[in-house]
């Protein structure tokens, strides 16, 4: 099985590249942002709880995220593996994920980290905000908060996988297909 962590700051292109990876390798998409937005749309208690954090661009507490991911992994029966998009976002989430997978005799194949300069990230997020309807894509201070949270809380997750010899960095600027080709070369080595 292929279990890939697609990593990078907000606006790095994780969602776009995930779609292409899913198609090529027949993976199950596990985007915690998408799962929270689904709960939000359905008005569940989890959605209401997450909204407070999401609207501000802050992280939803680890135990909430981990519980949701664990349920999703356990309810997914078939497929070639998972693509984790926007998760894990803290070292605590990364080590909890390792435990959940280990219990199922699974493991992370590798992390692919998309590298994109901050000015391009902000431009992409603002552009996406015109059509995504996402509150957190439209407000300059929320965009700033998300990038700061990424640098402070999420970047150490790359170190976690580097320590396991599983980190590959990919330049995340160029055409979607160019970037995807570089990602696929890495995945083909797993
Ligand atoms: P995303 O769609 O991945 O940019 O996520 C949107 C928002 O959902 C984030 O700004 C967080 O508020 C929340 N979120 C998504 N994934 C996580 C996660 N793994 N840990 C904590 N909060 C998350």
- Succession of helices and strands: EHEHHHEHEHHHHEH
How big is the Rg?
Answer: 16 Å
**Tally of discrete structural domains:** 1
Classification by helices and strands: alpha/beta
| CATH topology annotation | Rossmann fold
- Beta-strand residue percentage: 5-15%
Mean pLDDT: 95
Bound molecules: adenosine monophosphate
The second-level CATH architecture is: 3-Layer(aba) Sandwich
Strand order of the largest sheet: 2-3-1-4-5
N-C termini distance: 10 Å
Outline type: globular
The percent of residues in helical segments reads 55-70%
SS summary, helix count: 10
Subunit structure: Monomer.
Pfam families: ADK
GO molecular function, one term: ATP binding
EC number: 2.7.4.3
Description:
With 190 residues, this protein is an alpha/beta fold. Helix content is 61%, strand content 14%. It is globular. Strands 2-3-1-4-5 form a 5-stranded parallel sheet, with helices on both faces. It has a single domain, classed as Rossmann fold, CATH 3.40.50. The N and C termini lie close together (10 Å). The structure holds adenosine monophosphate. The site of adenosine monophosphate has 17 residues, from helix 2 and helix 3.
